[in-house]
Amino acid sequence: MNAISKGTLRELRIICCDLPAPPLFWKDDKGYRHGYESDLGRLLAETLGLPSSFAYQNWADFYPALQAGEGEFVLCGQGISDYRKTLADFTEPYAVFDEAVMVLRGSSARRPADLVGKKVGAIANSLNMALAETFTGCICVPFGGDSDDVLGDMVQALRDGSIDAFVDDDVALVPLAEEADLAIGFSVPTQNRWGIAVKKGNGQLLSQVDQALATVKANGQLERIWRKWMPSLAYPFGNT
Q: Domain span at residue 222?
C-alpha cells in the first residue's frame, strides 16, 4: 500500500493511557511500551511509512484530545459502540473480546442473578457499562476515567468494598485473576469489536489506517502479535 504523504503527516501520534494493562499495554522500567496494542500501533505506523509516538491521556480525555488534534487516532481499548460512534469514526476491528465480571476471591457470584442488589462498576458510557445495565437488580456504578488509572480505580473500589464487582473485557481481567484476592466470577460471550478511533470528517486518514490494518491482517503480522501477547485467546480473524 502507499505510505501517507510526508507533507500531509510527519508522525503518527497514538492517543492512549499510561497505565499497566497487560497483555494490551504497559511500560517497563526504561519507559518502553509493550503489549498487543502497543505493537499494533508501531506496526501500523511502519506500514504507513511513518514514525510513531504515544500521546498519553486519561481515559476520559481521549476524545477531547482527538478533537483538539493532540493525536491522529485513539488506540486504547475502545469497543465500537453507538455512543462512541457519535464521538469519532472507527476503523474495522483489530480485536474481538468477550466480557467478564471480576469479584473478590470467595464471592458466590457466578451469574447475573447473583448480583441482584450488588454494586457493579464499569467505565461510564462503555460497552462494559451497557452489559452491567442488563444485569437485572444490580446497582450500576460508573467510573469516569478521569484519573490516570481507571482500571486500578475499579480494582481498589472492589478491594475496599465500594463495589461488589466490576465488568471489563476478559483480556484485561485474566491477568488480574492471577492475584490472590481477585477472581473472574463469570464471563459473557459478547464478542465486543475493538476499533481505532479517528476524528470525524478525516476520511482520508480513516481510509489509510483501515488499509494498513487490512494489510497486516492479510500478511499475518496481526496474527503474529496476537499470538505473541495473547496465546490463550483464539485469534478472531481466521487463518492468514
A: 12-94+195-229
